[in-house]
Structures are given as structure tokens and as C-alpha cells.
Amino acid sequence: MNTKAVIFDLDGTLLNTLDDLADSMNQVLSRHKLPTHPSSAYRYFVGNGAFQLVTRAIPEPQRQDPFIQTCFSEFIAEYEQNWNHKTQPYEGIEQLLGQLQQRDIALTVLTNKPHDFALKCMREFFPDWAFSIILGQRTGVPVKPDPTAAWEILGHLNITHPEAIFVGDSSVDMETGINSELKPIGVSWGFRSREELESAGAAAVIDHPIELLDYLDN
Fold first, then answer.
1. What phi and psi values does residue 106 have, to the nearest 5 degrees?
2. Where a domain ends, among 33, 64, 82?
3. What is the domain count for the chain?
4. 65 pLDDT exceeds 80?
């Protein structure tokens, strides 16, 4: 069956957001006189939503409510100021989106990033592409790897599971694809390793965005 839609993860797949996320959380940690982390450490803090990012960045002895909630609120406020300072699309992404659009393949996004930030990022960095639906983390909807939001996208597009693929950079994304009965395609340019993607059940791992077209053709 021909692929009619691609569901993309956002952070680490379409956009390199790592430095802005790290800078925002490190500001919070510094304010509370806690140790900060290099940007590379945030590769392993992201993936399960902003609240988990904040929790993982806080030293274990301080991981208690209401302190986590306080830091989470402060992180959101910091990220409001920093979200577009260093963030950029990965090389080749815009070319890929153009090629997919020419093939009449629907473009969609499913991310554990808070929904409002997901919409801001897409408007800012991808204004020239018509994404059919963009879903971030929303109150009352389980985060990835739960399949609920992925199924919502399929329903919105009125397509079946074999007609879409899920593309992402982490084990969370591969598990989301599997849980949603979608082919999970891993990308090696993101925040996690090829080994993690393969271990999590990736149907394929690509090293450059345009390689996704080869996968679809073959």
C-alpha cells in the first residue's frame, strides 16, 4: 500500500532544539544554585515531555514536589524567551518536505513538546509547508509512546495504519510507531544513537533526510 502520510517527531528530527532547551533549563538550575549540564546531556533528558526533562535535570535529592513543579513553571517561562534563539531545521529537512509535498504525501507532526511551543516552532521554521495536523503534548492526552495521538492523526487524515509511517530520533518514537501499528523509521542525526533506534525496533534507520525518499520508493 502506498504511503499517504508521514508523522514526524519534532525535536531531534525536524529541528535541532537542544541548545535552547538546555539554556532555558540551565537558567532555572542556576537560579536555584544547582549544578547545570552541558547541552549534550540534554539529549537524554528530552523525549518524554517537558515535565520529565525538568525532573531529569534536577539533582536526585531535590526531585520532590512542589520543587519540581516550581522548576517546571520557571522552565516554561524561560523557554518562552529562548525557544528560537539557536534552534534550526536540520540540513536537508526542507528539501525532504518539498519532495514529500510534491508527491502529495501528507505532512504531520506528533511531539511530546508542549502543544503551544510545537505550533510556534512550526510557524517560525516551516512557514512554507502545509502540515495537515500538528499535535504537541496536551492536557488529558497521553504522551508518546502511547498511540492515542498517533491514532488521532490517522483519523484526521482518514487513512489506515499501513498508509502512514512514523519518523523520529529516539526509542520513544520507535515505540510510538510500534504501538500505533505504524512503520517506525529512525533518524541518526538527532539526539539519540543508531543503536538505541535499532534496539527499539526501527524498521530502518536513515542518515540523511533525503534517504527517506529512497525508503518510500523501495
1. -65, 135
2. 82
3. 2
4. yes
pLDDT in tens, 99-140: 999 999 999 999 999 999 999 999 999 999 999 999 999 999
Give the separation between CA 143 and CA 136, rounded to whole angstroms: 9
What nine digits make up the cell of 140?
488529558
The domain that contains 101 carries what CATH number? 3.40.50.1000
Q: Indicate whether 122 and 201 sit together in one domain.
A: yes
Of 82, 107, 127, which one is at a domain's C-terminal end? 82
Residue 128 in grid coordinates: 512554507
Q: 114 and 140: one domain?
A: yes
**Residue 44 three-state SS:** coil
CB 136 within 8 A of CB 118: yes
In terms of Cβ atoms closer than 10 Å to its own Cβ (0-12, 13-18, 19+), residue 84 is middle
Q: Which residue has the cell 517560525?
A: 124
DSSP state letters, 155-183: HHHT--GGGEEEEESSHHHHHHHHHTT-E
Dist CA 59 CA 93 (whole Å): 35
Q: How far apart are the first and last CA of the chain?
A: 12
Angle between helices 171-179 and 148-157 (to 10 degrees): 60
Report the C-alpha gap between 209 and 187 in whole angstroms: 8
Whether residue 153 is found in the same domain as residue 205: yes
Rg (CA), the chain: 17
CATH number at residue 74: 1.10.150.240
The phi and psi torsions of 204 (rounded to 5 degrees) equal -160, 155
Its pTM stands at 0.96
